[in-house]
Amino acid sequence: MVPIRDNNPTKITPYVTYALVAANVLAFIYESSLPPQALNGFLHLAAVVPRELSLSFAGISVHQPVPEWATLITSQFLHGGLLHLGGNMLFLWIFGNNVEDKLGHAKYLLFYLSCGILASLTQWYFGQDSSIPSLGASGAIAGVMGAYILRFPKAEVIGVVPLGFFFPTFRVPAYFFLGFWFLEQAFYGLVSLETPTNIGMESGGIAYWAHAGGFIFGAILGPLLGLFSDKSPEESWS
C-alpha cells in the first residue's frame, strides 16, 4: 500500500516541512548535475561512512575536509536516486505537517534533525566497520512517523495498492499502517544481523536499523518536546 494522504488537518502552515522537502529536492538536483566520478566523491564526503565515523570517535583523523560528525546532518539531505527521494518526500509530506503542528516550527526542526542523527548512529552501531556510505532522510522521517503514531494513532491513512492497471484505494488507521512499517524494518534489521543476505547496508542496500532506530527515538523525543502538550507551540517556549 502506497500512502497518498491522511485525513488529519492542521491549524498551521507547515513551513519547516515545506522547507525540508525543498532542501532535499535542491540537494538531489545538485547531485544529478555531477558527473559519476564527482558524484561518488561528493557522496563519500557528505554521507555517513561508518568506518570513518568510528575512527573519528577514536580520535583518528580521516583527512576529510568535512568533519565526520557533520555528515550525521549533511547525509540527511542526500539521496541515492529519484525513487529514494520521492518515497521519502511523500512520507514527510503526509506525516510531517501534523507533527510540526503540535511541536511548533522551531522544535519540530530540532526534533527532525535529532531523529536523523540518532537514526544514523543506530545504523552505525550495528555496522561500525562498514565502508559503505549511508545517506537519506529516511531515519529522520522515521522519527516523524514514530511521533505521529503516538499522537494520532486513529487518524486514517489513505493509500492505493497498485494491481496492474487498477489502483484500489484503502483507508487504514495510522497505528496499523505505521506499526506494520516499523515491525517490517525491525524484522529485516534482525535478519541482517544473523544471516548473509542482500538485506542491509553491508550489501549497499537499505539501512533498516536507521529506520527502526529513528522511529523509536521519534516516539521518545516527540513527547519530551511537547507532542501532547495542551499549550500552543508559541506558549511552550515561555
Description:
The protein has 238 residues and is mainly alpha-helical. It has helices at 15-33, 36-46, 50-57, 71-74, 82-103, 105-125, 138-151, 174-194, 208-224, and strands at residues 2-6, 156-160, 169-173. Strands 1-2-3 form a three-stranded antiparallel beta sheet. A hairpin with an 8-residue loop joins strand 2 and strand 3 (169-173). Helix 1 packs antiparallel against helix 5 (82-103). The longest helix is centred in the middle third of the chain and has 22 residues, at 82-103. The chain is globular. The N and C termini lie far apart (42 Å). One of its GO terms (biological process) is proteolysis. The chain crosses the membrane at residues 12-30, 77-96, 108-126, 132-150, 157-183, 206-228. Residues 68-225 form the Peptidase S54 rhomboid domain. Its main location: membrane. It is a multi-pass membrane protein.
Basic shape? globular
Q: Evaluate the radius of gyration.
A: 18 Å
Tell me the number of strands. Answer: 3
Query: What is the strand content?
Result: 5-15%
Question: Biggest β-sheet, characterized?
Answer: 3 strands, antiparallel
GO molecular function: peptidase activity
Family: Belongs to the peptidase S54 family.
Transmembrane segments: 12-30, 77-96, 108-126, 132-150, 157-183, 206-228
InterPro entries: Peptidase_S54_rhomboid_dom, Rhomboid-like_sf, Rhomboid_protease_S54
